[in-house]
Amino acid sequence: MCEEGKIIAAIVDIVSQVITPAIAEPFELVSVEYEKMGKDQVLSILVDKPGGITVEDTAELTEIISPLLDAIEPDPFPDRYMLEVSSPGLERPLKTAESLTNAIGQYVNISLYQAIDKVKHFEGDLVAFDGETLTITYRDKTSQKTIDIPYQMVAKARLAVKL
Question: How much is the pLDDT for 1?
Answer without folding.
Answer: 60
